[in-house]
Amino acid sequence: MSNPTQQDQRGNEQVGDRRTQQQIDASNWLPITADRKAKWYYSAFHNVTAVVGAGVLGLPYAMSQIGWVPGMVVLILSWLITFYSFWQLIELHEIVPGKRFDRYPELGQHCFGPKLGYWIVMPQQLIVQVASGIVYCVTGGKSLKKFFELLMPAWGDYRTTYFILFFICLQFGISQAPNFNSLKGVSLLAALMSIGYASIAFVASTIQGVNHRENVTYGIRSSTLAGQIFDLLNGCGTIAFAFAGHSVALEIQATIPSTPEKPSKHAMWKGVVVAYVVVAFCYLSVSLSGYWAYGSHVEDDVLISLDKPAWLIAAANFMVFIHVIGSYQIFSMPVFDQIEQYLVENRGFTPGLPLRIIARSLYVAAAGFVAMCIPFFGGLLGLFGGLVFASTSFFMPCIMWIVTQKPKAFSFHWISSWISIVIGVLLAVLSPIGGARTIIMAAKTYKLFS
After folding, report:
1. Residues in Cβ contact with 72 at an 8 Å cutoff, skipping those fewer than 6 apart
2. What digits encode the pLDDT tens for the residues 137-196?
3. Which of 189, 313, 354, 407 is the most exposed place for a label (fewest CB within 10 A)?
């Protein structure tokens, strides 16, 4: 007869086996790890959809807050730093032989320890993704409203809230897509739309600038020193928001097949290079032409500044609407993954369609409700951009690289990483101040659900 100690040991082993099997079953069902058959070009348009989004429309406004030379310096420097930090994340995905860090928090656990690493990375990544979802709801609603104002003026009299609500209703259905790879069609369409509306914004702004630039001024927007400082901080936050794709980089790479002979980093990097070429075209063309055409009077969403020809600007706004539908999904999929992983592995829920429908619908409803309450587009970009986007895109990958790779002092990677860390920390600390002020100023004239 076995003694109680042996029985307890066997019982613990059985519980452990059941838990391991449950985790395996969950891994085969969760949206990040369920399908690892992605092609390199999937990562290209996933990353275009993730990076080029609401942020590009706010770049001319950010330029008007900062000025020509500082604006271009911040924009180009941000592109270089985030391109480099993207490479670091891709390399770190399989830094341990035979293991893949499929999610940003998992890499954090490897770098900083199981508990500390999780709680350093997870809240920041979650805020990035939830904040992106909120901002994309606002952008989608405003762009759809502008579309109708231009083509059917009577429809433009409806509250912005109704258009945001329509966007949210679409997301209830699309959010039931099981995993990243099932979104490839949506993501491809969204990526094409981003190139389309960026091109329209560039061409229309250029035409506007050529024909109607007599009264355009290029001074910094605010006339007071305090206002100029706040605008500078908010502008930097807006630019930080424009490079937010890092928070989903590892999750996108997790969908690409990997073998020792052909690791996933090669396909992922190929896709990111293509994506960042597109990013450079979209960001430079829109920011330069928009600020050149409208100067310090440009709107916080440059398409709102454009009104002729009406059909072309309407088309651009509708492209934005289609694009942010895809962007919303790219940023929400890791949130769905985290919610479902918690419910299955920690709360014992059974993986399946009912769990997916209920969990995702509750999230979509909550994010949408917040978007309808505070649609302060420009301020949201600065506030969220500075709070956490700077961390996940600018300096967190560099800190992880230093911790794991320990580059030699004053080597290229050591210097590059520390420059990125210093700039990123400054963005994270200072730019939310400007974003918060913009929201406060807008709130003075805003009515709830207007």
Report:
1. 63
2. 988 998 899 899 888 887 777 888 999 999 999 999 999 999 989 999 999 999 999 999
3. 354
Count H helices and E strands in the chain, helices first. Answer: 19, 0
pTM: 0.88
Please give the DSSP secondary-structure letter assigned to residue 178: -
Cβ neighbours of residue 256 closer than 8 Å, sequence gap 6 or more: 36, 38, 39, 40, 42, 43, 264, 267, 268
Written as six digits, the tokens of 166 are 């329509």
- What is the residue whose two structure tokens read 């930097």? 236
Residue 22's alpha-carbon distances to 29, 33, 149, 162, 339, in angstroms, are 11, 14, 52, 42, 16
Maximum CA pair distance of the chain? 97
Rounded Cα gap, residues 33 and 27, in angstroms: 6
- Of 315, 336, 334, which Cα lies nearest the Cα of 249? 334
CB atoms within 10 A of CB 406: 10
Whether the CB-CB separation of 313 and 205 falls below 8 Å is answered with no
> Does a cis peptide bond (omega within 30 degrees of 0) precede residue 178?
no
Query: Predicted confidence band at 384 (pLDDT cuts at 50, 70, 90)?
Result: low
CB atoms within 10 A of CB 215: 7
Asked if 293 contacts 206 with a C-beta cutoff of 8 angstroms, the reply is yes
96: left (phi over 0), alpha (psi -120 to 50) or beta: beta
Total number of residues shown for the chain: 450
At residue 94, the 3 state secondary structure works out as: coil
Average pLDDT over residues 272-281: 94
Please, is 444 exposed, middle or buried when counting C-beta atoms within 10 Å of its C-beta (0-12, 13-18, 19+)? Answer: exposed
Contact 245, 45 (CB under 8 A): no
Task: Report how far residue 117's alpha carbon sits from residue 109's, in angstroms, rounded to the nearest whole number.
Answer: 4
Q: Which helix (H) or strand (E) holds 399?
A: helix 396-405
Predicted local distance difference test score (pLDDT) of residue 85: 96
pLDDT tens per residue across span 26-57:
778 899 988 899 999 999 989 999 888 666 87
Helix (H/G/I), strand (E/B), else coil: 260:
coil
Helix (H, G, I), strand (E, B) or coil at 28: coil
